[in-house]
């Protein structure tokens, strides 16, 4: 064992006290500060959880009024809109011909597994399996894209 590996444990044992004759642990070895509070997924509010999960969608969709289309259409005011009807976005034939009106039920089914909900659509997203995750994303989307909606 080299000298530096022998000194470090010794310093920790005596508490880096500089040779003082202390009977208790030094300030260098014990901290009385509380650890920072880190929110886990289960401690987030549904809106916070939705915002976090929406980051998966952000690469392809914008939520802002007047936002531009990306790989997917801008989703401003999507609730109550007919699928495939956003001006200026080139939809797949199946989406453009669809009679789906976007609401909680249809959006939930769509983001669960887009390829199953509407076979032949171009959205390559694998989907969101957990119902609580889909609920959180939809809550966030509704709050961000529906001008008259007030989040709980």
Task: Describe the protein in words.
This protein is mostly helical and 152 residues long. The chain has a domain at 44-145: Cytochrome c-like domain (Cytochrome Bc1 Complex, Chain D, domain 2, Orthogonal Bundle), CATH 1.10.760.10. It is built from 6 helices and no strands. Helix 4 crosses helix 6. The longest helix is centred in the last third of the chain and has 15 residues, at 131-145. It is globular and about 60 Å long. Mean pLDDT is 82; it is low at 3-22.
Helix-strand layout with pairing:
Layout: H1 3-14, H2 46-54, H3 93-96, H4 104-112, H5 114-117, H6 131-145
Please trace the helix and strand order, writing H or E for each element: HHHHHH
Number of helices: 6
CATH class of one domain: Mainly Alpha
**Main beta sheet, described?**
none
Beta-strand residue percentage: under 5%
Mean pLDDT: 82
How far the N terminus sits from the C terminus, by CA atoms, comes to: 62 Å
Please, what is the oligomeric state?
single chain
- At the fold tier of CATH, the topology name of one domain is Cytochrome Bc1 Complex, Chain D, domain 2
Q: Structural class, from secondary structure content? A: mainly alpha
Question: Any idea what the CATH superfamily of one domain is called?
Answer: Cytochrome c-like domain
CATH architecture of one domain: Orthogonal Bundle
Q: Which residues form runs of ≥5 with pLDDT under 50?
A: 3-22
Give the overall shape, derived from the CA principal axes. globular
Tell me roughly what share of residues is in helical segments.
25-40%
Number of strand segments: 0
Q: Which radius of gyration do the C-alpha atoms yield?
A: 26 Å
């Amino acid at each position: 064992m080299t000298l530096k590996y022998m000194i470090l444990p010794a310093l920790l044992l005596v508490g880096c006290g500089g040779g003082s004759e202390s009977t208790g642990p030094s300030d260098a070895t014990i901290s009385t500060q509380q650890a920072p509070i880190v929110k886990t997924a289960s401690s987030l509010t549904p809106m916070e959880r939705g915002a976090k999960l929406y980051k998966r969608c952000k690469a392809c969709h914008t939520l802002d009024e007047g936002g531009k289309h990306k790989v997917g259409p801008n989703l401003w005011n999507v609730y109550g809109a007919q699928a495939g009807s956003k001006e200026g976005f080139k939809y797949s034939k199946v989406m453009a011909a669809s009679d789906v009106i976007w609401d909680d039920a249809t959006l939930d089914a769509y983001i669960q597994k887009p390829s199953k909900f509407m076979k032949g659509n171009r959205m390559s997203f694998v989907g969101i399996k957990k119902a609580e995750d889909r609920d959180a994303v939809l809550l966030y989307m509704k709050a961000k894209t529906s001008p008259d909606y007030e989040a709980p």
